[in-house]
Amino acid sequence: MKLELDLLRKENEEVYYADLDFISLDQENINFLIGLAKNTLRQRVRLCCHKSPQDIVHEMIIVHPRYAYVRPHMHLKKAESMIVLEGEVDYITFKENGTIDKVISMGESRSNKPFYQSIRSEIFHSLLIKSEWLVFLEITNGPFIKEDTVYADWSKQNPDEKEILDFIEFLKEGSP
Questions:
Q1: Pairing mode, if any, of strands 133-141 and 80-86?
Q2: What is the DSSP string of 20-74?
Q3: In sequence order, what E strands does the chain have?
Q4: Residue (of 29, 116, 140) closest to 16 by Cα position
Q5: Fewer C-beta within 10 Å: the chain N or C terminus?
Q6: What is the pLDDT of residue 175?
Q7: pLDDT tens column, 80-101
Q8: Measured between alpha carbons, how far is 21 from 88 in angstroms, rounded to an integer?
Q9: For residue 92, what are the β-bridge partners?
Q10: Closest of 77, 81, 47 to residue 64, by C-alpha
């Protein structure tokens, strides 16, 4: 299936829904999504393969650029799984005080790195993207309730460019 804008419902600059009963994606589709991301302010895009925020299963193809700030957060009463489709990333978990707890260096399946991880408890986590683009499948349970995502109070809500770079350096220091 070739993804085209007329097949998608645009929620906002970064979020699209595929209102389709059958979805099959290939490399051409990933390139299409990266192209969409390149034209957004934050260079990010999310393709929701579920039809509504109220659905009980949420499957999203997410595109982030290198140096994207993913504010440390946790999800209340939700499992979250991630499968790397393209790129490399360190999946980082934190202790309550903001120190790094674990770093899982991930890559696509042919990288010989872990390509799948799942978190089943309320643990602060973030991403340190190591490739030009990271494309991953995220699966979680719905419905989406904004208040079920809790951001670490020791993290910046709207960091400026220098604060983002400082945070990335902090993450790099804790990464292998």
A1: antiparallel
A2: -S-----HHHHHHHHHHHHTSTTS-EEEE-SS-TT-SEEEEEEEEETT-----EE
A3: 8-10, 15-18, 45-48, 57-65, 73-75, 80-86, 88-94, 100-107, 116-119, 124-129, 133-141, 149-151
A4: 29
A5: C
A6: 65
A7: 999 999 999 999 999 999 999 9
A8: 30
A9: 103, 126
A10: 47
Other CB atoms within 10 A of residue 60 CB: 17
- pLDDT tens-digit readout, 41-50: 999 999 999 9
Q: Tokens 């951001």, residue?
A: 151
Which token pair is 8? 């998608």
Model confidence band, residue 169 (pLDDT cutoffs 50, 70, 90): confident
Residue 1 has pLDDT above 70, yes or no: no
Residues in the chain: 176
Distance of CA 95 to the CA centre of its chain: 20
**Over 80: is that where the pLDDT of 176 sits?**
no
Rounded to whole angstroms, the Cα distance separating 173 from 77 reads: 31
Task: Specify the residue for token string 């872990």.
Answer: 114
